[in-house]
Amino acid sequence: MSWIQENRFVAGLGGITAVAAAGLIVWGVKANGAYDKAKEEYGTAADQVDTITKGRLYPNDANLQAKKKAVGEYQKSVDELQKSFDKFRAPTPPNVEPAQFSETLLKAKELAAKAFGEVRPTATELPPEFFLGDEEYTGKPPEKGATGILTYQLEAVSELMANLAKAGPSKILNIHRPKLVEEEGKPFDAKGKSFRALPIEIAFTGNENSVRKFISSLDDSQTHYYVVRSIRVINEKLKAPTAADGAFEKKDGEAKPEGGAPAADPFGGAGGFVLPGEEPAAPAAGGAAKPGAAAAAPAAAAAPAAGGDGVILQQVLGSEKVNVFLRIDIIQFLEATKATTPAPKAEAAGK
């Protein structure tokens, strides 16, 4: 008999154990694979949660309420800002006949020219062709579809010219107005826009005070809003002043130097120009100081400079004029677009 037949119980138990062990191995391998997959999915989800948690705004109820509050405050500030510009929010004037616009342009030009001629004792020099940047329409009328926006821009430019005339420049070099789309027969697309810029370029010559006055006047308007997009200021004299720019006065009866000989020292020579607290300079070799010259010098130096005939040296610094170029945008604030509320279904069905 075989061992299995003689030991049936042991053989059966061993077989059952082997089958059970094989089953456990197979189940363990499968379970290990499922565990690895579950672990990988858990790790991915944990990383996503960690990223969201470390983000700027974690999506919980407290942060949601804080976000709504911030958005509401921002919307309120925007509304208040828009409201502050309401006084500048003027609609575009209706289009008129081209001949009527030409008459308006002529009147505006005459008023501006009169302002430049009356403000200063010496009238401001104007260009030969001076029509506020609309020189093109002195020989032909504009398109009727552009007269409305041109009228709006002309009103703003007229105000600019009045302010510039008050500033008192010595010369208007040029006024250039880039063309608007309406002048080319195209409509202006206001979709998604809250304002429109109407540019104007102005070049003039004046002193520092006239430039400062004109720029300061740009924010004084109650009807138009101006923005300086670019500015360039350059001295009329590009070279620094020299001694030749000084002008010395001549006393009555004083002989002029002949043969190009240098004139007498305007400050009195050695010891003739002494600041308070300084010792007078020693006389030059071979010469003697005049009696009382040293004593009189401090008193003369301490005395204030007299006006009129007492001026010795004219001002040579800071009195030169400057050439100024300004590109200014006239801002037209557009009407806010209002959302339309859809009609109820019942009304829509009845219509």
Molecular structure report:
The chain is an alpha+beta fold. Helices cover 41% and strands 12% of the residues. It has helices at residues 3-6, 8-54, 61-84, 98-118, 147-167, 208-217, 293-302, 345-350; strands at 171-176, 195-206, 225-235, 322-333. It has a four-stranded antiparallel beta sheet with strand order 1-2-4-3. The chain starts with a helix and ends with a helix. Residues 266-273, 287-314 and 338-351 have low confidence and may be disordered.
Q: How do you describe this structure in short?
A:
With 351 residues, the chain is an alpha+beta fold.
H-E order: HHHHHEEHEHEH
Low-confidence stretches: 266-273, 287-314, 338-351
Structural class: alpha+beta
Percent helix range: 40-55%
Q: Rough shape?
A: elongated
Query: Mean pLDDT, rounded to whole units?
Result: 76
Largest sheet: 4 strands, antiparallel
Q: What gyration radius follows from the Cα positions, in whole Å?
A: 45 Å
What percentage of amino acids are in beta strands?
A: 5-15%
Secondary structure: number of strands = 4
Major sheet: order of its strands?
Answer: 1-2-4-3
How far the N terminus sits from the C terminus, by CA atoms, comes to: 105 Å
Number of helices: 8
